[in-house]
Prior knowledge:
By secondary structure, the protein is an alpha/beta fold. It has helices at 17-29, 49-59, 75-82, 94-110, 130-138, 149-160, and strands spanning 5-10, 32-38, 66-71, 86-90, 115-119. The chain has one domain: HUPs (Rossmann fold, 3-Layer(aba) Sandwich), CATH 3.40.50.620. The protein is built from 6 helices and 5 strands; from the N terminus they run βαβαβαβαβαα. The chain has a 5-stranded parallel beta sheet, sandwiched between helices. Helix 4 (94-110) links the parallel strand 4 (86-90) and strand 5. It is an enzyme of class 2 (transferase). Belongs to the bacterial CoaD family. Homohexamer.
Amino acid sequence: xxxxxxxxxxxxxxxxxxxxxxxxxxxxxxxxxxxxxxxxxxxxxxxxxxxxxxxxxxxxxxxxxxxxxxxxxxxxxxxxxxxxxxxxxxxxxxxxxxxxxxxxxxxxxxxxxxxxxxxxxxxxxxxxxxxxxxxxxxxxxxxxxxxxxxxxxxxxxxxxxxxxxxxx
Length: 168
């Protein structure tokens, strides 16, 4: 295990088995993994930042070297604050690649000391995305295979608060 600290940014709306798989694997590679939950002003999240941080903390509570925090602003600044020298990103499909390469290049330009590393999910998780999980839950499907039990109940609670959930 290296002496590096990795920061894994994302919206985590909500955190899925795909994210967790990646974090668990990263926790074996790095001294510390910081899961940085983004405010993401461009999107209106389903869960609030506080809820997303809480759900991530709940599902990752058994990992000593994993820390969860919320962040706003530039990722490289959050990385500097946390002493992270590696940005971790998950690549599910070729379609993620172009944007991620652009992001990595921009981050390197702003902060050459920080490396971006890509991990691919285990094959059983490649098709899972938070937006698909939300959609399945919204349509009354079972999301047990994709998220932790705590996340599943949080989804159900949240959806129960939304009137007329079957019409978009």
